[in-house]
Amino acid sequence: MTEILRNREIQNLSIEDLYVRLASYKKSLFDARFNSVFSDKKDTSHFRKYKKSIARIKTRINQFR
Predict the structure, then answer these.
(1) How far apart are CA 14 and CA 34, in angstroms?
(2) Residues 57, 23 contacting (CB under 8 angstroms)
(3) 44-50: long-range contacts (C-beta < 8 A, 24 or more apart)?
(4) Residue 57 lies in a domain
(5) Is it the case that residue 13 has pLDDT exceeding 90?
(6) For a FRET experiment, which of 1, 31, 33, 57 has its CA 20 to 30 Å from that of 39?
(7) How far, CA to CA in Å, does 12 sit from each of 37, 40, 46, 64?
(8) 52 domain residue, yes or no
(9) In this predicted structure, what is the pLDDT of residue 5?
(10) What is this structure's pTM?
(11) In this structure, is residue 18 part of a structural domain?
């Protein structure tokens, strides 16, 4: 799983790094959803963390424009 970044850390990343992290978080969210369907454990707390991180990164990308 991908490491969740803090907002302060996101602010220091370049635009290229942000796009790489965004793709990584989207893939991790997809994998987590896929695995939750086929596994017995139902810990869904990481869904929210990935969604919030994706939103933070998208906000930071829009600030560059």
Answers:
(1) 30
(2) no
(3) 46/1, 49/4, 50/2, 50/4, 50/25
(4) yes
(5) yes
(6) 57
(7) 35, 38, 23, 12
(8) yes
(9) 85
(10) 0.87
(11) yes
Nearest Cα neighbor of 63 from 20, 5, 10 is: 10
Give the tens place of pLDDT for each residue, 16-64.
Answer: 999 999 999 999 999 989 888 888 777 788 899 999 999 999 999 999 8
CATH, residue 14: 1.10.287
> Is there a domain that residue 1 lies in?
no
C-alpha torsion sign, points 31, 53, 9, 42: negative
Please give the pLDDT value at position 6: 87
> Tokens for 43?
């810990």
Which two structure tokens, joined as six digits, stand for 9? 């850390």
Domain count, the chain: 1
Boundaries of domain holding 27? 7-64
- H-type helices in the chain, by residue range? 7-11, 15-38, 45-64
